[in-house]
Amino acid sequence: MGDRIILSIRDGSVGYENNETILSQIHLQMRGTDRVAIIGNNGSGKSTLIKSILGMPNILKLGEWFCLKIDDMGYLDQHYQNIFAKKSVLENVRTCLPTWELIKIRRFLSDFLFKKNEEVNLVAEHLSGGEKVRLSLAMIAAKNPKLLILDEITNNLDLTTKEHVIQVLTHYPGAMLVISHDEDFLRAIEITDRYVIKNSRLERE
Fold it and tell me: Which of 11, 70, 7 is nearest to 35 (CA)?
């Protein structure tokens, strides 16, 4: 994607149908290799902004918005909603890569630390928080999105998993929009721009 603009918001505002404005005066632009962090207190509107970029229908948007199609974005939320709880790790990834042979999927899963047979065949609802992050990220990576959106993904990570996720994200070629309070994590994944939400406005640091 390079220098191509993949996200542009000018004079934007977001809210809900009860006319409550959550954020206003939003100015945000991203290109194909940008890595942007959004920082703010809990309840400040970070997740609302993400939902508006994803085009969720319950969010009201004003201003000039250009966003990618939903199929070109990968969203890793705090509840790992892209995972099928009753399917195994292998079955979950196979839903994203239906034409791949088993041996190729196993190699792919190995990159996300699912190496043993018992790990690959474990049903998703029995995974730990860190394992769910790895599986969710694997399913997103399988689709190779142009914009990767990460919402507080380090909350459930042990140190080993966190280091591996950092390694994966460091080599990720596309753009990233990251909500996180973890300064060490943001530095490690080489964030290029930082925005903070203050007084219901998005401000560039």
Answer: 7
